[in-house]
Design a protein that fits this description.
Elements (H helix, E strand, L loop, with lengths): L16 E4 L2 E4 L5 E5 L7 H13 L4 E5 L3 H16 L6 E5 L3 H8 L4 E4 L17 H25 L2 E7 L5 H7 L3 H17 L5 E6 L3 H17 L6 E3 L7 H16 L6 E2 L10 H13 L37 E4 L9 E4 L12 E4 L10 E5 H7 L6 E4 L17 E5 L5 H14 L6 E7 L5 H14 L5 E6 L6 H11 L8 E4 L10 H12 L6 E5 L5 H4 L5 E7 L2 E6 L2 E8 H14 L7
Length: 599
């Protein structure tokens, strides 16, 4: 476990402090919350107004896109106008494809974000075989552009972010490493090595993906790789193209939460296809969720056959509806049967046995053909029923697992009760691994809160799910109006372990977007949300659009003012369709490829 050797206590991954204007990121400084405006950078008044809104809502760092030289130059007008209003929030210029724009921005704003996938390289989705010599020549080409930029930043005290994105890795990186966490990390490390060589330390780094597993595993790998090469740059966290509504909040909490649980992360941005200021309370809720866990001590765990850098489902015994290769299940109350696979009952007919609580798979609920008693560890040791009982325990009872026969036909229900539930859950699963116990396991968690329940639940359940732990989850709440099973099902989807509805991958919009992304996303959702087996991408522009299409079945990507290109995977199927016709055209493409079903 290279990046975090002991889960017995929450720790912060050690990083340098980086100055961004008056702000300090990293070290022992509080985690910084940032956002990005979605106005046109050439519209100074609208951009200033939105920056002001964000600052008033508590944003500590604001990013503004600069797709070309003229936009980069206008950052000076934006900054001056903000200064006249008494607003001194540090600004970040977001650069893609335009090193000259980065040079201009470096003299104006406090920080410049560059994407290693397109800062010098271009992405044209072409295959090319690189020899070691030709690969080295490409790196020299990067140095020739990047080193003068670093010198500009050094002269003006400008920080940079090296931000890898799963959707926009260069062809060179993809051809050698694939569109993988390894490729994302190496893309950033090429630039970080130059920074280290040039003794430039004012750097933040990030690994962004719409896939929570990719985002989590690549960031952990980055932390390990930096440690190996003696680097300590602060790390920025975010699930990109998360979408909107509850689904986006859940995905963001899973990805960001999995890393904060490991002590990784110095600044975060929640990307929503909503007004930018809606991102800020979500980010703060995630940070507060983990800040409460700082003093929680838990039993240390032995090393097990586990990699934090890739998804690997835990091997468990197959009980037909749970365990083995089945998708993780949801446990809920009878009124939640539309989303729950197994129903919890506090009482059943006495002829079954004397237990007070039972679990019944919903498909057999009416006939009661398959009923499982729910008991404590103590009750299990007394009764040891022949049936496949469900046995619940807490972290204080973890040593009792040593008395369980590896062939016992039981399902474990682990009640996570501490503030740092992630560490508790991992401790339990590592104990099972050390004892070679392969019984199916359901993670159970009870919340007294009602507000932001989906965020808190995703923070606690999500990290284990993206690592392949858990054959089911059981989310309980005291709020009767909340459909906890529905939230649980969405958490499974957000962790990419079970798909139960259409997956929408949509970016948060920025000054590069030439149509109303929020309204368009809602329109597409209203017409395609019944296609439960599909992933649909809705992208404002081509920066990440085609790349993220690798993770989507179909894509709707802005191609120009009022124009849209439509994709099947990474392939463009229709170019430059008027936006008012594009949704109908997208449906036609889905029908042509045999993936359409009637609502």
């Amino acid at each position: 476990m290279n990046y975090c050797e002991d889960y017995s206590k929450y720790k912060r991954y050690p990083t340098l402090e980086v100055k961004v204007g008056s702000l300090v990121i990293g070290g022992e400084q509080p985690i910084v919350v940032q956002s990005m405006v979605n106005t046109s950078t050439m519209d100074t008044d609208k951009t200033v107004a939105q920056v002001k809104e964000l600052v008033e809502a508590g944003c500590e760092l604001v990013r503004i896109t600069a797709p070309g030289k003229k936009e980069a130059e206008n950052l000076a007008n934006i900054k001056q106008t903000l200064k006249e209003l008494g607003i001194t929030v540090p600004l970040v210029a977001d650069i893609h494809f335009a090193p000259k724009a980065a040079d201009i921005a470096a003299e104006i704003v406090e920080k410049v974000r560059i994407n290693p996938g397109n800062y010098v390289d271009k992405k044209v989705f072409k295959s090319h075989d690189y020899t070691d010599e030709s690969y080295a020549e490409e790196l020299k080409r990067i140095e020739a552009t990047f080193i003068p930029f670093l010198e500009l930043c050094r002269k003006h005290g400008t920080a940079i972010r090296v931000g890898s994105n799963h959707g926009s890795l260069s062809d060179r990186i993809v051809n050698r490493y694939g569109n993988t966490p390894e490729g994302m990390v190496e893309a950033a490390m090429e630039f970080l090595r130059i920074c280290k060589q040039q003794n430039f330390a004012n750097v933040v780094v990030s690994m962004k993906a719409s896939n929570t597993q990719v985002m989590t595993h690549s960031t952990r790998l980055l932390a390990a790789k930096m440690k190996e090469e003696k680097m300590q740059f602060p790390i920025h966290l975010g699930v990109t193209e998360a979408g909107n509504g509850e689904d986006a909040r859940i995905k963001s909490a899973i990805g960001i939460g999995a890393l904060l649980a490991d002590g990784i992360g110095d600044t975060i941005r929640v990307s929503l296809t909503e007004h930018p200021k809606a991102e800020l309370p979500v980010a703060r809720t995630i940070i507060e969720h983990f800040s409460l866990a700082n003093t929680v001590n838990l039993p240390a765990v032995s090393d097990v056959d586990y990699s934090p850098y890739q998804y690997q489902k835990r091997k468990s015994t197959d009980y037909k509806f749970i365990g083995g290769n089945t998708k993780p299940i949801v446990v809920g109350r009878v009124n939640e049967h539309l989303h729950a696979d197994v129903i919890f009952q506090e009482s059943m007919p006495e002829h079954i046995d004397k237990q007070k609580s039972y679990l019944v798979p919903w498909e057999n609920y009416s006939s009661k053909e398959q009923v499982f008693p729910l008991m404590s560890m103590d009750e299990y040791f007394i009764h040891r029923p022949n049936s496949k009982a469900w046995v619940q325990l807490e972290i204080s009872q973890i040593d009792l697992l040593e008395q369980i026969d590896s062939n016992a036909e039981i399902t474990f229900v682990f009640n996570a009760t501490s503030l740092h539930a992630v560490a508790e859950i991992r401790t339990f699963f590592f104990k099972l691994a050390n004892l070679n116990l392969n019984q199916p396991t359901v993670i159970r968690r009870h919340f007294k809160i009602g507000k932001n329940l989906e965020i808190h639940a995703a923070c606690d359940f999500g990290p284990s799910l993206v690592d392949g732990y858990g054959d089911g989850i059981w989310l309980e709440t005291e709020h009767s109006t909340t459909n906890a099973a529905s939230i649980a099902l969405n958490i499974l989807q957000g962790a990419r372990v079970r798909m139960s509805k259409t997956e929408f991958i949509s970016c948060p919009s920025c000054g590069r977007t030439l149509f109303d992304l929020e309204t368009t996303t809602d329109k597409i959702k209203s017409r395609l949300s019944h296609l439960k087996s599909l992933k649909i991408g809705v992208m404002g522009c081509i920066v990440n659009g085609p790349g993220e299409m690798a993770d989507a079945d179909y894509g709707y990507v802005g191609a120009g003012k009022g124009m849209v290109s439509l994709y099947k995977g990474q392939d463009v199927i229709r170019r430059n369709i008027p936006s008012e016709e594009a949704v109908d055209e997208l449906i036609a493409i889905i029908k042509e490829h045999g993936d359409w079903v009637e609502p």
